[in-house]
C-alpha cells in the first residue's frame, strides 16, 4: 500500500535511454552481453535483494542499461554483419528462436566477438553457478519489523512427560 509518507522517484530520475532491440537480436547477443555486463547486473541484483526496495537501486539499474547500450554499440561498430546473420538465422529458422539451428552463424559471431573484444562465449551453465560478488556499496542496516497491536506469541509447549494442564482426554482410564 502506498501512503503519503512514501516518496516515489520523479520521471526525470527514471528516464533513461532504453535498449530498443527485438527478441532475435537480444537472444543473439545474450551470452556475450551477460558476460560483459556481469558485474553491473550482479551489483543491481544484490542491491535489490539487500534493500528490498527497488527505489533505492535506480542508479544500479541505470548502469545495467548503460552497459547493455554500450555493448550493442560496440557490436554494431565491430561485428554488425556477423551479428545480423546470426540474429536473422534465429528469427527465421524456428518459431521459438532455438539456437540449435544456427550453430554455424553462431560460431562466426563468437569468433568475431572473441577477436574484437576478448570475450569468449560462456560455457553451458555458466550463469547458473553460484558466484560471490564483491561490492563497495555499504551493507544496509537491518531494522526489525514491528507490528503494533499484534497478539502475544503462543507459549512454548510443556516439556515431554509433564502432566497435562487440564487433565487427559482419556479420563476413563484413570
UniProtKB/TrEMBL annotation:
<keyword id="KW-0813">Transport</keyword>
<feature type="region of interest" description="Disordered">
    <location>
        <begin position="135"/>
        <end position="166"/>
    </location>
</feature>
<keyword id="KW-0496">Mitochondrion</keyword>
<keyword id="KW-0472">Membrane</keyword>
<keyword id="KW-1015">Disulfide bond</keyword>
<comment type="similarity">
    <text>Belongs to the complex I NDUFA8 subunit family.</text>
</comment>
<comment type="function">
    <text>Accessory subunit of the mitochondrial membrane respiratory chain NADH dehydrogenase (Complex I), that is believed not to be involved in catalysis. Complex I functions in the transfer of electrons from NADH to the respiratory chain. The immediate electron acceptor for the enzyme is believed to be ubiquinone.</text>
</comment>
<keyword id="KW-0249">Electron transport</keyword>
<keyword id="KW-0679">Respiratory chain</keyword>
<keyword id="KW-0677">Repeat</keyword>
<keyword id="KW-0999">Mitochondrion inner membrane</keyword>
<dbReference type="InterPro" id="IPR016680">
    <property type="entry name" value="NDUFA8"/>
</dbReference>
<protein>
    <recommendedName>
        <fullName>NADH dehydrogenase [ubiquinone] 1 alpha subcomplex subunit 8</fullName>
    </recommendedName>
</protein>
<dbReference type="GO" id="GO:0006120">
    <property type="term" value="P:mitochondrial electron transport, NADH to ubiquinone"/>
</dbReference>
<dbReference type="GO" id="GO:0005743">
    <property type="term" value="C:mitochondrial inner membrane"/>
</dbReference>
Amino acid at each position: 500500500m502506498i501512503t503519503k509518507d512514501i516518496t516515489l522517484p520523479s520521471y526525470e530520475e527514471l528516464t533513461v535511454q532504453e535498449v530498443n532491440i527485438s527478441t532475435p537480436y537480444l537472444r543473439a547477443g545474450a551470452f556475450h552481453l551477460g558476460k560483459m555486463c556481469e558485474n553491473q547486473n550482479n551489483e543491481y541484483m544484490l542491491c535489490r535483494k539487500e534493500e528490498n526496495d527497488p527505489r533505492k537501486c535506480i542508479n544500479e539499474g541505470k548502469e545495467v542499461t548503460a552497459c547493455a547500450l554500450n555493448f550493442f554499440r560496440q557490436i554494431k561498430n565491430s561485428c554488425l554483419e556477423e551479428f545480423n546473420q546470426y540474429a536473422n538465422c534465429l528469427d527465421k529458422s524456428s518459431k521459438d528462436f532455438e539456437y540449435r539451428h544456427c550453430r554455424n552463424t553462431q560460431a562466426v559471431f563468437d569468433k568475431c566477438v572473441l577477436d574484437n573484444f576478448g570475450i569468449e562465449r560462456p560455457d553451458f551453465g555458466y550463469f547458473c553457478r553460484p558466484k560471490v560478488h564483491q561490492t563497495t556499496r555499504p551493507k544496509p542496516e537491518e531494522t526489525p519489523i514491528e507490528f503494533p497491536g499484534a497478539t502475544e506469541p503462543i507459549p512454548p509447549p510443556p516439556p515431554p512427560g509433564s502432566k497435562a494442564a487440564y487433565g487427559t482426554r482419556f479420563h476413563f482410564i484413570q
